[in-house]
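REQUEST FORM: STRUCTURE PREDICTION
Request ID: SP-0412
Submitted by: Lab K.M.
Chain count: 1
Length (residues): 616
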Amino acid sequence: MDNLIGQIALGVNCVENRRIGRSLSSIAGWSNAHVASNDRNAFLAKAGRAAGKGRSGTIGMFQGFLTYPEHLSVALSSGSDRGSDYLIALAAERWGQNAAQHVCGEYVASVYDPSLRTGFLLRDHIGTRPIYWHWEDGILSFATGLADLLAILSDKPEPDEETIAAFLQHPVTLGSRTFFSGIKIVEPGHMLTFQPGGVAVRQWWNIEDVPDTRFKNLDDYANAARELVERAVSTRLPKGRAIGAHLSGGLDSTAVTLIAQEKLRKSGGGLLGAYSWSPPISPDAPEFAGLDDRKKVLAISGAAGLHPRFAALDGIAFRSFLSRPLELEGVADVADEFSTLEQARADGIAVMLSGWGGDEAFSAHAHGVPAYLMRRGRLADVWRLMRAHGGLRRPHRMAYFFWRTVAVPLLPDRLFQKFGPFDNIYGRNRYASARLQSKHPAQNALSSGRFTADPIRDIKNAVLRGHIAERMVTWASWGQSFGVEYRYPLTDRSLLEFVFGIPPEILWGDRRSRFLARHILRGRVSGRLGKSDPANEKKRLLELRQCWSILSHEVADGRFDSDCPWLDMPVLRNDLARGPSGNDKLDVTEFARIMPAVRIWHMADRQGQLQSKNLR
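STATUS: Completed
RESULT:
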């Protein structure tokens, strides 16, 4: 991949070119880097394509892809195709910091004007890949890989204990923080601007500024959504590269996979594989009666001429996952993806299409739509929805529907925490040490699944929460080591802005949730789609229990005897030694709390923070 790295002097100190050069020569992938600038003011380099230089000398470095490069080329009168690096440099020369508004795609970029010593670091609207930065003594250092950034810093930063405490309480998203003091990540839809004397963070994509979208009738909304999704998939199908796709059997992955296969077949190609996290149907994982996602995956694949691939993770691999360097790779805990990556590499896949992010926005359940209608006095519409989801012959279903989709969304936060359908399973820093808790007390946090009578606001909050980007960051890191680039059609900027701008009731256009996603699949697939993966859930439960049993034996062997300044080790050792209970819900909940602590313990071990203690 086209990794970026740079150091820019914006004060009295100079860039240490020789030391940076020596550091890069020892990092895998950087031995033949393209150096774009190498003087006392700036060292800029790329691993992959060379950087671009604009007409006025502005240096552009770009990682990722543009969805409409031809449109940008015309707008900038760039002439022949000279690549995205050149286009980002031209865009900065023409529009300055407003260039981000004109650049669509999945990317990070850096722009530097040597004559003024100004520029910016830019991350796309949703955060499909990371760019990290460090500011100290007038020197700005940045890189697309955290390990690369650490390599060019003169001193290694200390672990950031505030981030560690926050992760132990809610291990889902870190925001702009990293596990290293002084190192930040440019957040999605933001840029870091710099000039002599300082740096500043600026938000360039504001979802509150998205204009309303209005059509005459429901069909127009549905057809507009269909066109946007098809276009989003089409612009993520690179020529000459082997492409695969996630396929769970749910709405999002099915839509992306089938549209991609249609588009590729028209040009004589096709997807090389469809990848599921579920285990294959076998004596060890027999077919479930009724709904079973694996049957849907097989049926969809067979009809579309695809080769389905199923997962093969076990407790040993899960245990190995917990020891991976989350401080460098990201905090997402979807270990299932490693089986996908192994198979994708064996299949020669270069690009993996994913429906990730779809059900947070485009295909969101939007549970609060009935409450939205009720708040606006549209009682007849609410009654029709209740009839559609229960009917007079099943009054108990009508009552449950009313409670779940009308009453609960209207509850204040405190009552929603008590009666809402989602739990905050992580608790209040159960495994944080007393010292860490005293320095960084746990904060009360609402469940991340909070929904209200403002469903579009809920969708925006889901995007702003950052967990979509956290998984993208982690997968970008994992994928790079397997030679796989991820692409996400359902988080396309135009598609998200369309969803943010439509009336909420359109999301339930046919009186059921996820109307737009189901409309797109109309005529493409038959039968009911949606999450129903008992085989995958059973596989995960088995992996969890195997992993916990392994950890229990490790405790008995003294593996966790050392003290950790961030963890309450007696409590952690006791819970690890106890092992799984056999109660499905209890084991899932308890291990969800244990997992972040074990990952932090391994980080402490890598950072030399463990203190030997003989408990034998």
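NOTES: The domain at 209-362+465-528 is CATH 3.40.50.620 (Rossmann fold).
Reviewed by: T.R.
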